Amino acid sequence: MATEKEMDLSGEKLSVSDFSLGKTLGTGAFGRVRFVTHKSSGRHYALKTLKKAAIIKMKQVDHIMSEKQILAKLQHPFIVNMFGSFHDPRYIYMVLEYIVGGEFFTHLRKAGRFDNEQSLFYAAQITCIFEYCHELNIVYRDLKPENILINADGYVKLTDFGFAKVIEHRTYTLCGTPEYIAPEVLLNKGHGKPVDWWTLGILIYEMIVGYPPFVDEDPMGIYQKILAGKITFPKIFHKEAKSLVKKLLTPDLGKRFGNLKNGAADIKEHKWFKDLSWDDLLAKKIEAPFKPAVKGATDTSNFDDYPDSDQEPPAVNASQDPFTNW
């Protein structure tokens, strides 16, 4: 397998013609992610392609710039690597690591729910990611099963840093997925790193039960339930997992795990993780409880099929282009 150094294209002057475009792996508000092969090296990547005009219209330039700057800073075994970036009059591009196992969300929906051991394995990796990001004052703010990928080795890779932000103290922007939003975000009190620990609590619950703790047809109904804070734990919940989730889903920031003086250590030392070696986890020495079926480095079968877009977005005039230094 190519090393990260060999995969790096950041020193090269790139254009879309340097890549053979393959299947669309995912779509979003501003564009899509495609499986691509770099023609000269034969290496495979995921190419995130975003429409400049749509980003400008939706006033998301700062978010997208921030995503690129943050990804360039991060290097962690459980975070998707960015290997290069470039732009043309219509699009901006990010060359990302291709994660062959597909979306965590797909595997969770297929399984219905995960057992205690599998849920613990994934929760531990997310804990490591947040601990690492928070040390750099980066708050992720958008944890959900759709933003986690699974690699061929069964370990996770966090992707989509569009809402991530460098926050020294607190910020006030409302963002995130309704089921995962922390109460302090809804109350617009200003929020920071503790929101990530709240979302970890929601994810653990969703992995074990198969759906999040606060659900409703209507987002307003979800928000009311989050603020009411009543959580029902089915009998299948392991008692230590339940204890940790309660400590994460605490509206009182002075009591929420991850936000106390020991930081992430309170979570890592919790009884639920007592049999886990954190060093072995980071070194990927622990056998994953599940590995996706993968036929090889170019396999895209773990990703859903998306129709191709035939509409070309308008080009952005060079004099009005905020991405000239991309």
From TrEMBL:
<keyword id="KW-0808">Transferase</keyword>
<dbReference type="Pfam" id="PF00069">
    <property type="entry name" value="Pkinase"/>
</dbReference>
<keyword id="KW-0723">Serine/threonine-protein kinase</keyword>
<keyword id="KW-0418">Kinase</keyword>
<keyword id="KW-0547">Nucleotide-binding</keyword>
<protein>
    <submittedName>
        <fullName>cAMP-dependent protein kinase catalytic subunit alpha</fullName>
    </submittedName>
</protein>
<dbReference type="GO" id="GO:0005524">
    <property type="term" value="F:ATP binding"/>
</dbReference>
<dbReference type="GO" id="GO:0004691">
    <property type="term" value="F:cAMP-dependent protein kinase activity"/>
</dbReference>
<dbReference type="InterPro" id="IPR008271">
    <property type="entry name" value="Ser/Thr_kinase_AS"/>
</dbReference>
<dbReference type="InterPro" id="IPR017441">
    <property type="entry name" value="Protein_kinase_ATP_BS"/>
</dbReference>
<feature type="region of interest" description="Disordered">
    <location>
        <begin position="294"/>
        <end position="326"/>
    </location>
</feature>
<dbReference type="InterPro" id="IPR000961">
    <property type="entry name" value="AGC-kinase_C"/>
</dbReference>
<comment type="similarity">
    <text>Belongs to the protein kinase superfamily.</text>
</comment>
<dbReference type="InterPro" id="IPR011009">
    <property type="entry name" value="Kinase-like_dom_sf"/>
</dbReference>
<dbReference type="InterPro" id="IPR000719">
    <property type="entry name" value="Prot_kinase_dom"/>
</dbReference>
<keyword id="KW-0067">ATP-binding</keyword>
<dbReference type="GO" id="GO:0005952">
    <property type="term" value="C:cAMP-dependent protein kinase complex"/>
</dbReference>
<feature type="compositionally biased region" description="Polar residues">
    <location>
        <begin position="317"/>
        <end position="326"/>
    </location>
</feature>
